[in-house]
Write a structure and sequence with these properties.
It is a single chain. This protein is mainly alpha-helical. It has one domain (2-82). The chain is built from 4 helices and no strands. The longest helix is centred in the middle third of the chain and has 26 residues, at 29-54.
Amino acid sequence: MLEAGLDLLGFGLPLGIPSWGVMLGGAGGIWAALAISLTIYGINMFGDSLRDLLDPRLSGGVGHYSITANKMKRLKEKLVKNS
């Protein structure tokens, strides 16, 4: 994001080297902005999911993805009962 901002202002890479910042100032500005936005959103979502999985303070709350043996047993019993 920093590189794209510097390129947009003219302080980044030379004009012959393709980058999102150079594209923002040119004809493909909307597509470069969309690509930057989606990339940053994806990185943020990936980081949030890693935090949810690895943070021990979130154990048992929102973001707790592991399943206990008792929950698994109850799910299996429910599946057998319903089928």
